[in-house]
Automatic annotation (TrEMBL):
It holds the Pfam family ShK. Its cofactor is Zn(2+). This is Zinc carboxypeptidase A 1. Residues 125-441 form the Peptidase M14 domain. Keywords: Carboxypeptidase, Disulfide bond, Hydrolase, Metal-binding, Metalloprotease, Protease, Signal, Zinc. PROSITE patterns: CARBOXYPEPT_ZN_1, CARBOXYPEPT_ZN_2, PEPTIDASE_M14, SHKT. GO terms for biological process: proteolysis.
Length: 500
């Protein structure tokens, strides 16, 4: 194992220095040992902000560091022959430049979205929480036959979490399918709330123009939450300081822990704020890919559903039968389905989830050529427990549960700082994917289908042939998939020993 001694040096020499400049490193692990070394760094040093964590060989890692950390990390990477370059030399400069562009464009009409002709709201820019609230309320007043708005919870800082329901109120029926869509669970992922706002705009303003939209609104209840983490979002908007603009968690009260600073010095108290909301759901809580350190970017919280934001989701889904659960994140261009807490771990209806996701990714690509990978979070990125899409599938019994990692792709330099001219292309192509998922949801026979699909399923008949049809059968079998995934008996008869 490669030494982590340099991390101790960073903390001891620079732990109390206020950094003024941040850079983002693009790191390219070329061996499995490189990946494991970077994963160890991420686990041991919670002061480092991995925009994209280490997952596999030849998959880029993006790491934001201050000047104090940068020299030591670069030197260590060079010592271990791990290739790296500077992706963003000065993060705050990029943030400032984007802020100046927004200020200039706000006064121009050419980017304003006038298609509905009733409400002046620019979908091609990032908005404040107050702007979002005002827009949702304006929609409710302007389109009362289609729209209602309600709070589903209150945050630590007293902000209400707004939910907008879009449906044809004149066609009330207990058999309507229900779709949940949320964005902004991670504060810094600004394109996510903007994409949800585009969905809302499309469902409402295109109802009288597009027969497909009319079908969606007539036949389904749409529950959309543009900003699930309004406290963190507003905090990320409050400064150009990269540590604030790139804030990930919510704004839960400060928690303190004792940290050992050296063998001959007493422990020091370290206090930090915020919980990673997408580690706080009750799905293998705290087991993998999260942290008990309040200063970590992936701090899981004291217990499952410790946060008002996650409790709001839990309580709402407990009171409403949801067919489809969609949560939007950024970035990496991945469409994920459960389960993400362990590699090669799937639900019984994997084939349906995978086929629907593949068709959705193809529809997304058809608009601008944007490529998405499809798979579970554990298989495409890294294992992490406590995620909302896993909980929705495994505990809330939602039939179709998906997580989108939106633009940009991992090779693009801007990461979380996606320019505003990318908002509408991102939203439009993602809507094409959501339409595919909505169409598949409508094909369910009745409103009870979602629950029935979660019950233990009988294995489908299989041919008694002793052969494996997939090169990964051995690995899947070793992880216990033969017992939990019925179709394994057909695809991996030899490894599962069903014909010996």
């Amino acid at each position: 194992m490669k030494s982590l001694f340099f991390l101790v040096i960073i903390h001891s020499l620079y732990g109390n220095i206020q950094a003024k400049k941040f850079s983002v490193l693009r790191i390219s692990p070329s061996t499995r040992a490189d990946v494991e070394f970077l994963q160890e760094i991420r686990t041991k040093d919670h002061d480092l902000d991995f925009w994209k964590g280490p997952t596999e060989v030849n998959r880029e890692v993006h790491l934001m560091v201050d000047e104090a950390q940068k020299a030591y990390i670069e030197r260590t990477l060079e010592r271990h022959n791990i290739n790296h370059t500077i992706m963003i030399p000065d993060v705050e400069r990029v943030i400032v430049e984007q802020k100046k562009k927004r200020a200039k464009l706000n006064s121009e009409l050419r980017l304003r979205d006038w298609r509905d002709g009733k409400i002046n709201f620019n979908l091609a820019q990032y908005h404040s929480f107050a702007d979002v609230i005002n827009y949702l309320n304006a929609l409710a007043v302007t389109y009362p036959e289609l729209v209602s708005v309600q709070p589903i919870g209150t945050t630590h800082e007293g902000r209400q979490i707004p939910l907008i329901k879009v449906t044809n109120k004149r066609l009330q029926s207990g058999n309507k399918k229900a779709v949940w869509v949320d964005g902004g669970i991670h504060a810094r992922e600004w394109v996510s709330p903007s994409t949800v706002l585009y969905f809302i705009h499309t469902l409402i303003t295109q109802y009288d123009k597009d027969p497909k939209i009319r079908q969606y609104v007539d036949s389904m209840d749409w529950y959309l939450v543009p900003l699930l983490n309004p406290d963190g979002y507003e905090y990320s908007r409050s400064s150009t300081n990269p540590e604030i603009r790139l804030w990930r968690k919510n704004r839960s009260p400060t928690k303190c822990i004792q940290v050992a600073s050296g063998p001959f010095t007493p422990p020091q108290q370290q206090c930090c704020q915020g919980v990673d909301l997408n580690r706080n759901f009750d799905w293998f809580f705290g087991q993998v890919g999260s942290s008990t350190d309040p200063c970590s970017e992936i701090y899981q919280g004291g217990f499952a559903f410790s946060e008002p934001e996650t409790r709001a989701v839990r309580d709402f889904l407990a009171q409403h039968r949801i067919t489809t659960f969609i949560t939007l994140h950024s970035y990496s261009q991945i469409l994920m389905y459960p389960f993400g807490h362990q590699v090669r771990t799937y639900s019984n209806d994997l084939n349906d989830l995978h086929a629907t996701a593949t068709n959705a990714a193809n529809a997304l690509r058809s608009m601008y050529g944007t490529q998405y990978r499809v798979g579970t979070g554990a298989d495409t990125l890294y294992p992490a427990s406590g995620g909302s899409e896993d909980w929705a599938k495994g505990k809330a019994h939602v039939k179709y549960s998906y997580l989108f990692e939106l633009r940009p792709e991992e090779q693009v330099w801007d990461g979380f700082l996606l320019a505003e001219n990318q908002i509408l292309p991102t939203a439009r192509e993602t809507w094409e994917a959501v339409k595919v998922i909505a169409d598949q949801s409508l094909r369910l026979q009745d409103s009870n289908t979602a629950v029935r699909h979660q019950q233990p399923q009988k294995a489908q008949p299989f041919r008694n042939v002793c052969e494996d049809k997939d090169s990964l059968c051995g690995s899947w079998a070793a992880s216990g998939a033969c017992e939990t995934w019925p179709i394994m008996k057909e695809r991996c008869a030899l490894s599962c020993r069903v014909c010996q």
